[in-house]
Write a structure and sequence with these properties.
Blueprint: H1 11-27, H2 30-40, H3 43-48, E1 55-56, H4 68-71, E2 73-78, E3 85-93, H5 102-119, E4 126-133, E5 167-171, H6 184-197, H7 217-237, H8 244-254, H9 258-264, H10 272-301, H11 306-314, H12 318-330, H13 334-341
Parallel strand pairs: 3-4, 4-5
Antiparallel strand pairs: 1-2, 2-3
Helix pairs in contact: 1-6, 1-7, 6-7, 7-10, 10-12
Length: 342
């Protein structure tokens, strides 16, 4: 989800894109997502799932028009009793003054999953939706429902039987910064989001302090780089600059090795130093997976249509490619494979 500062997007849209990308990168880590579930999700949900078997949901479940997969995070959570799965979905709503669009969006997401699962002969998954809302004030009142969008009878009640999907809402600004729960990466991510939403650019370094608890130096550098990349971009949209001196002072307590700080702050701040290398490596791995997938398809079906070859080569989602590889191994024809990945 790249952000092009040269487009005519509004400041709110630009910030939304930057926040969306940050949420996906941080919560896309399985352990961070599990950490969030254990500390913030409905306990009844957590008690039913096998934590050790949680995995990213197959992205093809969203269908060819599943725009939600860009910003939202979807994980498959097998039940402890082995009789199915729950589908945990984090939906990120930036600067929402209302949640009125949420019910329809959630119906669209789960309908895509159910359609794909039914075609594959699988048991339908139960959805569990978590809305991360970043409005500056906590949401008040009842959460919107599908029936709010539909015609009512003369008695004011919804006509017909309306299926409702329940969801939890977490208002970041409403959280007490000192009471954030979970491991260091989760607390740092939530803390940074909260500070930036509140436009507290001057004191955001406070949110970096949980990183002190990380023992893996490489992981500490990577996460710090991700956070500073996010903060720098968010501040630039607001026509502000990152206070390198202030951040460096905080980083001295996070990193014992001053060379690490220098690698983060070169002559000019460049968030791509450490992260860029990691992304380059990841892109290389994805391209390798795409080549391997094409080899499998050619071995099984001899010829691969140009449009399918182009689609595979352009795919940058490693999870999607893994899912497509499974289809390549099980589909009985190229037509069946093409239909499955669309």
């Amino acid at each position: 989800m790249g952000t092009n500062m040269g487009t005519k997007e509004t400041k709110s849209q630009l910030l939304g894109n930057i926040y969306d990308t940050f949420v996906k990168r941080m919560f896309g880590r399985i352990l961070v997502f599990i950490d969030f579930l254990l500390h913030y999700a409905d306990k009844r949900f957590v008690d039913e799932i096998d934590i050790d078997k949680i995995a990213p949901a197959p992205t093809h479940y969203m269908g060819g028009e599943g725009d939600e997969r860009i910003a939202d995070l979807i994980f498959q959570c097998p039940l402890k009793d082995g009789n199915g799965s729950l589908m945990a979905v984090i939906v990120f709503e930036h600067q929402s003054t209302s949640l009125k669009k949420i019910p329809l969006k959630l119906h669209k997401i789960i309908s895509a999953f159910w359609t794909a699962e039914a075609k594959e002969g699988k048991n339908l998954s139960t959805p569990y939706f978590i809305v991360l809302r970043t409005g500056k004030k906590p949401y008040r009142g009842q959460y919107p429902k599908m029936s709010d969008l539909l015609p009512k009878g003369r008695d004011g009640k919804p006509l017909g039987h309306v299926p409702e999907i329940w969801y939890d809402v977490f208002d970041l600004p409403a959280w007490n910064f000192g009471e954030l729960m979970g491991g260091p990466i989760l607390r740092a991510a939530l803390g940074i989001l909260k500070k930036m939403i509140e436009e507290a650019g001057e004191d955001f370094p406070e949110a970096l302090r949980p990183l002190l608890e990380l023992s893996d130096k490489d992981q500490k550098v990577e996460v710090t780089q991700e956070i500073l990349d996010f903060v720098d971009k968010a501040l630039r949209v607001r026509h502000r600059r990152l206070d390198k001196a202030g951040v460096s002072e905080v980083l001295k307590t996070v990193f014992e090795d001053q060379k690490m700080i220098k690698s983060i702050f070169d002559e000019e701040f460049d968030a791509g130093v450490a992260v860029g290398e990691a992304r380059g490596k990841a892109i290389g791995e994805v391209r390798g997976e795409a080549k391997m997938l094409l080899k499998i398809l050619r071995a099984r079906f001899h010829q691969v249509p140009k449009n399918v070859e182009k689609l595979v080569q352009s795919m940058t989602d490693a999870v999607a490619l893994d899912s497509w590889a499974q289809h390549a191994a099980t589909c009985q024809s190229m037509a069946e494979f093409t239909k499955a990945i669309r």
